[in-house]
Design a protein that fits this description.
The structure is a single chain. This protein is mostly helical and 358 residues long. It folds into 2 domains: 188 residues, Ferritin, core subunit, four-helix bundle (Ferritin), CATH 1.20.1260; 69 residues, no CATH class. The longest helix is centred in the middle third of the chain and has 82 residues. The protein starts with a helix and ends with a helix. The protein binds fe (ii) ion. The site of fe (ii) ion has 6 residues, from helix 2 and helix 6.
Length: 358
Amino acid sequence: MPATQADTKVSQYLNEAQATEQALIQTLRAHIAMTPAGSYREALEEHLTETREHSRLVQDRLGSIASGVNLARVAVWTAELGIGLAESVTGRMLAIWKAPIDLMRGRSGEEKLLKNAKDECASEALEIATYEALQRVAEAVGDEETAELARRIRADEERMLARLRQEITKLADAVVGAEVEGRPTYRIDRTGAADAARRAVRTTRRAGRRTAGAAADRVAKAGEETAGTVDAAGREAAGATDAAAAQVEEAGEQAARTARTPRRRSQTESRSRSGGRETNGRSSGSSSRSARASASRSRRAADREPWPGYNEQTVPEVRDALNDANQQTASRVLEYEREHKDRTAVEQAAERQLDEKG
Ligand SMILES: [Fe+2]
């Protein structure tokens, strides 16, 4: 057989094997969904993994052969034989089986599983035969690589068939237990579909928590950033307020100093008119240093109440108290009033007392 024709024939059998694997993938997924957890489902899940790997290996081998031959020629051969991937003999057989078998399923879950296992054994037998044929064709045309692949996959199929047959015994016992002895063991809440649904719920919840957590983190971060901005603005505002307050305080002190100067002058003039000794004493022989010290003492004295409870006393009460006050006390009252309260009636009373005592 010419090389190209041999490759085309091998590709034809590889395509049949590929169709078988693809059909079995769909069947196994459906059977896993209705099978409760246990040794049988473990066998099906391992079989599904293995079947996907077989499909990949067969597809790779088809690709390798196609890269060395005229793909158009392969297509012609396939068309001439009436064999397409979707309508291969194996695919048709599986399709023919599926519909009536679905209708003939047993009454109990246990019996459905047994019938599924019998189908799987039949599929395995067909796969074994398919790979046996592929192996023989590949050996005949000298395609040792394809022959070795077919040999390897066939060994997997034979091992899986043996395992499925072991499950048949247990599944048949379960049917008797459920339908004859009234001891059902099929748990619909333990099937692959139920487990998949629970996994989906858990995944959704985890995703939800992650999303909520991320959203909360974003909100917290935004809050922190906002708080930081507000804090910075607050500090800036506080700084501006402090500066303004300092300016106001400075202006106030300046105004107070300005205000004190003429009023002291007025006091001096008043005492001069009455011949007060204190005024004359201050004005005679004072240096600039003693003047500043005197002013400082005066300010400190002016900040203190003339006597305890002074701030709570009314004007008549202070005036009454001034009647008995000495010159020093009257002077403190006058200074305090000018600094803090500025009550004209009290200041006049204090000045009168100073005049009388002076
Ligand atoms: Fe397989």
